[in-house]
Amino acid sequence: CTEKYAEIYYNRPDVQKALHANTTKIPYKWTACSETLNRNWNDTEASMLPIYKEMIAGGLRVWVFSGDVDSVVPVTATRFSLERLKLSAKIPWYPWYVKKQVGGWTEVYEGLTFATVRGAGHEVPLFKPRAAFQLFKSFLNGIPLPKS
Amino acid sequence: TRAEEEEQHDRISALPGQPKVSFQQYSGYVTVNQKSGRALFYWLTEAAVRDPVSKPLVIWLNGGPGCSSVAYGASEEIGPFRLNKTGTGLYLNKFSWNSIANLLFIESPAGVGFSYSNTSSDLLNSGDRRTAKDCLEFVIQWLERFPRYKNRDVYITGESYAGHYVPQLAREIMAHNKIAKHPIHLKGIMVGNAVTDNYYDNVGTITYWWSHAMISDKTYRQLLNKCDFHRQKNSNECETLYSYAMDQEFGNIDQYNIYAPPCN
Predict the structure, then answer these.
(1) Model pLDDT for residues A59-99, shown as the tens digit of each residue
(2) Which helix (H) or strand (E) element contains residue A104?
(3) Chain B residue with minimal CA distance to A61?
(4) B220: left (phi over 0), alpha (psi -120 to 50) or beta
(5) Å from A25 to nearest chain B CA?
(6) CA of residue A5 relative to chain centroid, distance
């Protein structure tokens, strides 16, 4: 329900002034999601997998994570998609830990790291902030998620 | 210099209801298309360390398409502040990602949040291609305004439909770097619950629904048989099956977190 708090806060004139926002008097109120844009989306690529191949070939660090109680873009969707990349495993599947609890499961492939986040919904850092932060630390440091 | 003036203009002294913090924040607009008057809004929360420029720059994009990274990324997920229930103030996020990185939230494309376009038709014909190009222009122009970040490692992160934005921006940056005098130091990307591939995402989604007992065997089989996930738009018959699954079988759940209490 937290979008509702944002709708109140970011429409406050004093907040907009502090943020240097809405300086041209935008003719609609601030909303968390724009229905207009969503309904009129003009072009979408069918698959990001070719770009994943480019990024991996270009040496970029690529991490993909998934909160495992989201049913909108669920973990199975991500696994089915990534499977098509046919990457070979570098570090085989294992549970990763945060504060002595299973944070989720992970596999390090050649060029890509995949991790699930146990009990997290679509917005992983909202539902599992500690686990998401561990994920972010490991990603920035370029090291696999902790095994214990 | 002009960059210094712009940076000073964008510096946030404090947000209403904000607790005391040790880091600097900046927000404002970067024009990405002069002709159309498209400008993207950003909010930078620098790393809460003694020397923030020693830390990488992490760009966060939200999905939708059409959703705000200020609303979600910054205010609900990884940013330093959380909003209280009455919208009167802010409190600190104990697990803010800005404890180890500089966070740059971009409202993209034009029309999202505080981002805008002076050409109203821009709101009716946005899409992946223009969003990626506008974001690249944003990053280039933003680094001109904040030159101290020019040599920092850059990472792009995001969730949901940003599963398109993030790799597409990475591809634009990689192409830009091939010809640029000053390449952008892009090191990596990270995406969560990301839209990746139309066909496999859809098959995986209904398989998740079935394997988590959210839909019946019959509905699962019908969805697999009647929906052609290679198509951009589903047939009416397929849409009817989706509606049946959601209205009659899911129940009143939060689809974004199936075991959480629903937000009424």
Answers:
(1) 999 999 999 999 999 999 999 999 999 999 999 999 999 99
(2) strand A101-109
(3) B188
(4) alpha
(5) 10
(6) 22
